[in-house]
Amino acid sequence: MSNVAVTYAKRMSKLKASEIREILKVTESPEMISFAGGLPAPELFPVKEIIEVNRIVLEEAADSALQYSTTEGFAPLRRWIAERMNTTQGTAFDADNILITHGSQQSLDLSGKVFLDEGDVLLCESPTYLAAITAFRAYGVHFVSVPTDDDGMKTDELEKLINETDRVKAIYVIPNFQNPTGRTWALERRKELARLSAAYGVVVIEDNPYGELRFAGEALPSVKSFDTDGNVLITGTFSKIFCPGYRIGWIAGDKDIIKKYVLAKQGTDLQCNTLAQMQIAKYLELYDIDAHIRTIRSVYKTRRDLMVKMMENEFPEGVTFTRPQGGLFAWVELPSHVNARDVLIKSLEEKVAFVPGGSFFPNGGHENTMRLNFSNMPEERIVEGMKRLAKVLRAFI
Amino acid sequence: MSNVAVTYAKRMSKLKASEIREILKVTESPEMISFAGGLPAPELFPVKEIIEVNRIVLEEAADSALQYSTTEGFAPLRRWIAERMNTTQGTAFDADNILITHGSQQSLDLSGKVFLDEGDVLLCESPTYLAAITAFRAYGVHFVSVPTDDDGMKTDELEKLINETDRVKAIYVIPNFQNPTGRTWALERRKELARLSAAYGVVVIEDNPYGELRFAGEALPSVKSFDTDGNVLITGTFSKIFCPGYRIGWIAGDKDIIKKYVLAKQGTDLQCNTLAQMQIAKYLELYDIDAHIRTIRSVYKTRRDLMVKMMENEFPEGVTFTRPQGGLFAWVELPSHVNARDVLIKSLEEKVAFVPGGSFFPNGGHENTMRLNFSNMPEERIVEGMKRLAKVLRAFI
Q1: Are A4 and B113 within 8 A, CB to CB?
Q2: With contact defined as beta carbons under 8 Å apart, do B372 and B357 qualify?
Q3: pTM for this entry
Q4: Nearest C-alpha of chain A: how many angstroms from B158?
Q5: Contact assessment for residue B121 and residue B142, using Cβ atoms and an 8 Å cutoff
Q6: Does the ipTM surpass 0.90?
Q7: Interchain contact B201–A (C-beta under 8 A)
Q8: Which of B6, B63, B71, B271 would you mutate first to test chain A, the one with the most A CBs within 10 A?
Q9: Among partner residues A15, A134, A245, which is closest to B68 by beta-carbon distance?
Q10: In whole angstroms, what is the distance from residue A101 CA to residue A107 CA?
Q11: N or C, fewer C-beta in 10 Å, chain A?
């Protein structure tokens, strides 16, 4: 078993282990205060209700719940998602606009499979979601970062890049409480992105895992709601409003495009877990998910407020940070001479973990940035962890 | 939403909907007698036990069961699989040899991602598993069919093809109760395949979804058990011995290679459903899966015996068929002038479904073949369905 000399596919040389997942392995010890992962607060999981829906689904429909099913996904769940998106995202979907996926990550991977050829260019925010880079990189694309400010991609710069760049195939964006920065796109930028997508025939992947988690400011319509030509695909997930362990999300868009996603998923893994889909549908039928989401928002708001207050009070001069209106993450910029990877080494000695921001830039650089998660730790640990982190930062600055 | 003019990736032009999945949609009406799908018998699902383990896992460990977890999979489940394979497949694995996947189909897709570049050649049995063709086709490979008889691939012909063909990257085989033919490879052919894999440095994907379902003849060691160089990967799944709705399978092999699969899976969908993995592990801890598998084998043997008897008694002269020693499928060859797709049209009028065999040949032809599933229908429906199918066949021959 030790003479292996196989040749891997070329794409494998581009993949490396997720830095976040490697850091998460270190943070598994209970004394570690972790601002690293994008983990929801486990104490909010609706455990009692899940035990109940598990039992009901199996008593009512075990034959179908445990059997193979369609690639498209469980029809009642697809209908619920379509209606939900019509209410919250300003879309006009029915069930056939929705494919159930194995979490948002699969929505991104399938987007690569459906649209991206080797050598294509993908335009993305700067910084952008690390695991999206990993997913798309496997398809051999080049990443071009679009200059981004607190209102989202600068759409005038975006248009220039579309015009100047060969083989632009798709634009990847996270308009709500972006990972990693926590930023939210302004309304005008959303409209303008949809316009550019139609004008230039460029696909937009609108990744929206956190859209339901707004705890401040006013809800804004999705980019998809301004889409005139059907070029915009939008993702969603139950990971952040229910439980990530279920691995159930979706991709939504034009019905002809979704048919292509169905084909791609069929060869990839046939279908999602039938039981999990039926359990979530039963939960949505029997319980009030809006009340549950209100609880999540309220807890995350308290934690965000606390983390921002700690940053304001404890972080040294020269450190700037975002004040997100929702989601899971805040973003920190250190003075340019400070490398956040060095900070992490010291911080781990103090039993505090975070993710250095450099990994979120597909073409490197920006090593003076950090991503902080505020959803996963209870208040007293946020206070303690931020005190320790501030102390480490003061030693660097 | 109707002006879509997006450009898909080139690979999408090679994908088409699974004929089986399209036929399965027609067979959903309860009066249809279906020999089409590869569906386990739902009346054997351990429903009571599953309700129990769902409850126990959530009461004991909801925080972790509903949360994100590692890409590799739930450690106790990986350990169980390693030990199981060491017992049944003659391997020498520990947990690090195992990656939990979203069913065997994902094991195949990830194999494509890890190993296959556009233009590579994949050698396969003739016929072979339809959905494996779909999975590998997305990576732009060429299929070369290796002449195959009742003992498996003809390994002398295989060696000739390895020598004569450029860019042979991998060999895909299903040695136990093959899908679609029900055939099982002879011992010598297994040894010889392992030898050729080492001698020529060619990867072998040994797909083994049905290995546990032997109800006649003697168990044979896996190809992997004869692997000297670590080039052989072997799949497994809980779909056929537990429930397919869970979508939990695995890929096993050399630890360095499995690390590459872990990387590939990380970008594809992060990880499998945490709760599902823990529920299966709890089932394996609390209940006797061997007793459960004995029940499955016994029921499938009865159904296989019945289907073979019906074919012997009712099918017209000139029709030949396999007598599988396990698994889910029998394979039928009609006289060469009869097209099984025409037979299917008439058969569906009689409310009997099956899958025409032509789709299982990656390079076409062989339209006079059919795949019959015997696991899913109870005995009286097998008798009735086979009577009707025989009547249709007699009209053609």
Answers
A1: no
A2: no
A3: 0.96
A4: 19
A5: yes
A6: yes
A7: yes
A8: B6
A9: A245
A10: 6
A11: C
DSSP B325-370: SBSSEEEEE--TT--HHHHHHHHHHTTEE-EEGGGGSTT---TTEE
> Three-state SS string across B275-309, please?
HHHHHHHHHHHHCCHHHHHHHHHHHHHHHHHHHHH
Contact of B221 with chain A, judged by CB distance below 8 Å, is answered with: no
Return the number of CB contacts < 8 Å for A and B: 277
Contacts of B247 in chain A (CB under 8 A): 269-274
B231-246: string of b/e by CB count within 10 Å (b at 16+)?
bbbbbbbbbbbbbbbb
**Per-residue pLDDT tens over the stretch A92-147:** 999 999 999 999 999 999 999 999 999 999 999 999 998 999 999 999 999 999 99
CA distances from B297 to A212, B46, B212, B242 (A): 48, 15, 9, 12
Whether B61 contacts chain A with CB within 8 A: no
Note the Cα A361 to chain centre separation in Å.
15
Instruction: Report how far Cα A308 is from the mean position of its chain's Cα atoms.
Output: 21
| Chain segment B173-224, per-residue pLDDT in tens | 999 999 999 999 999 999 999 999 999 999 999 999 999 999 999 999 999 9
φ/ψ of A188, rounded to 5, equals -65, -35
On chain B, the residues whose CB falls within 8 A of the CB of A239 are 68
Q: For residue B68, which residues of chain A lie inside 8 Å, CB to CB?
A: 37-39, 239, 244-245
B4 with A66: Cβ contact below 8 A: no
Average pLDDT, chain B: 95
Alpha helices in chain B (DSSP H): 19-26, 47-65, 75-88, 104-115, 130-137, 155-164, 187-200, 255-269, 274-286, 289-314, 340-349, 379-396
With 0-12 CB in 10 A as exposed, 13-18 as middle and 19+ as buried, what is B31?
exposed
Q: Which of A67-102 are b and which e, b meaning 16 or more Cβ less than 10 Å from the residue's Cβ?
A: bbbbbbbbbbbbbbbbebbeebbebebebebbbbbb
Residue length of chain A: 397
Residues A138, A162: contact at Cβ < 8 Å?
Answer: no
User: Judging by beta carbons within 10 Å of its beta carbon (0-12, 13-18, 19+), is residue B177 exposed, middle or buried?
Assistant: buried
Nearest to B114 among A1, A9, A273 (CB): A9
Q: Which segments within B136-239 are labelled E, that is strand? A: 142-145, 148-149, 152-153, 168-173, 203-206, 232-237
Contact (CB, 8 A) for B343 and B334: yes
Nearest to B6 among A118, A201, A244 (CB): A201
Question: In angstroms, what separates the C-alpha of B285 from chain A's closest C-alpha?
Answer: 20
